[in-house]
From TrEMBL:
One of its GO terms (molecular function) is ATP binding. The gene is ddl. Binds 2 magnesium or manganese ions per subunit. Its EC number is 6.3.2.4. The active site is at E20, S155, S286. Residues 110-308 form the ATP-grasp domain. It comes from the Bacteria. Pfam families: Dala_Dala_lig_C (PF07478), Dala_Dala_lig_N (PF01820). This is D-alanine--D-alanine ligase. Its main location: cytoplasm. It catalyses: 2 D-alanine + ATP = D-alanyl-D-alanine + ADP + phosphate + H(+).
Amino acid sequence: MIKHQIRRRVGVVMGGSSGEREVSLRSGAAIAEALEARGHEVVRITLGDDLGPELLTTLRRSRIEVAFLALHGRLGEDGCVQGLLELARIPYTGSSVLTSALAMDKLKAKEMFRLHNVPTPPYYTVHASDDRTDLESLHGSFGFPVIVKPRGEGSSLGLTKVTSFEELAPALEKAFEFDDAAIIERFVSGMEVNVGILDGKVLGAIEIAPKNGLYDYEAKYTPGMTEYFMPARLPQARYRGVLNLAERAARALGCSGAVRVDLLVTSGENEYVLEVNTLPGMTQTSLLPKIAASAGIDFGALCETILESARLHQPTRRRAPAASEVRLHERVPQRSKKDLRLVKTAG
């Protein structure tokens, strides 16, 4: 067993009710084994469908010092569990409640990218409650092909490449199985690249080459369906530009801890950010560990570094107001309506 300076009681939180539950369980198992090998006391906390008050009770009774989040998808990666941990005052890995929510919501993330001049493919949204009787008018001159995907789901669940109006309605229905809203995004032909970031430091970029041309759920999790090239096969200057763009995207959302940024790199010298993952997959074969390994960080060291970055993001009141401050506030006279009129006139 490897000696470690600080031995901690760590709760590895995994499972959940999203479509990415199985991936989360694999991430959690790998993380737990790595932390145990480094001398930590690990409590495996597997979540089910119920994330109500019982979860808060479970977290407190576990007597963990810190929570290592291995959750993916809704109700785990979107700020919900992070909020519970803030209430329980248990430090946790990953980004804050707000950042987690923004990154998981593809629409809000894109709005933040545009606000910070981070290029992202053009898009529009459709809600399940919208009148879809005339999709041609709704789609207008947006063109094809497009990518249709749920607004708030990960692992490319519910994602479809659409090449005609006839395919649009079925693709939307597929997306609505996972969310009440869908993103219709212009398809951009280019190299898929993922960039790993750890505590604000860019680790490198890996190229993803799916054999069916689309990096969907099947391509991500079926062995042999995708080739990976580390580092991404790009000219040196462009490689640095991709790393810089990924760093800007993560900064736009306020990310912390371990982050993976998904991008498209076109032959026309353009780069686009697709999304930012605040709790990237952490199995031995996931993309972030591959990128970290290329940077000289093995899986155990990666888990240790992520653990060390765990913290609470909501500030606590440092002190209560002094009695003199309260009394001074209470003595401030209330202005009458006449006084306010005089002030306004004088201004």
